[in-house]
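Service request form, structural biology core

Requester: graduate student, group of Dr. S.
Request type: structure prediction, single chain
Budget code: on file
Notes: please return the result as structure tokens.

Sequence provided:
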Amino acid sequence: MITRIGKVTNIYPSTGKVKVLYEDEESASLPLSMLTMNQEYSMPAVGDRVVTMHMENGSSKGFVLGTYYGGGMQPKANTGYRKDFGSGAYAACLGGAYLLSAGSASIKGEKASVYGGGAALSLNGDATLVGAVVTIGSAAASEDEESEEAEPDVCLKVTEEYAELKSAQDIRLEAEADVLLKAKNVMVEAEEITLKCSYGEITVEEMMKRMERIEDQLGLPHTI
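Core staff response, request fulfilled:
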């Protein structure tokens, strides 16, 4: 086996091959296959320097082992693990923390699960979450990560037919400014409903009883 160093001049993405120029001899190889690295697809760019390995019976048979640092290519990390995918996208792992950075990212599958002691999602722009049924909630972590997810203690569930906000605990809606609720019909169902404003506080049940007393005094039939 003969090991050589050269510069990529042509890439053939559909076949996983590249052509390499050997500047020391001003000669070029035939298209050489890239090593798959356990079925990982990652083609070098034109101009990248690579290490090749040729059979001793001729330069037409060989493989491209990969790129290397040096000759104008410097590492973008100095510790941990980093994998660059091109166009600024990369994955990095340091001290047990994993980071995936990209202009856009998609997760596709019949089922997707994320497990962890804590999670945060920060966005500088718009976000869209689309699905036949979308559930966003909070629940105690399952002891068995391979089991079906527990029913969330607090969740917002959205389907094509309805939107449901469900909680085993209190739900609070707070705003520093106005809150607008607009719908064709609004139904509120509870054992007790309390209305509170700067004028005072009253339950809906007490309000209805006061209305009944006024109707009795006026000799009017009860509306409810």
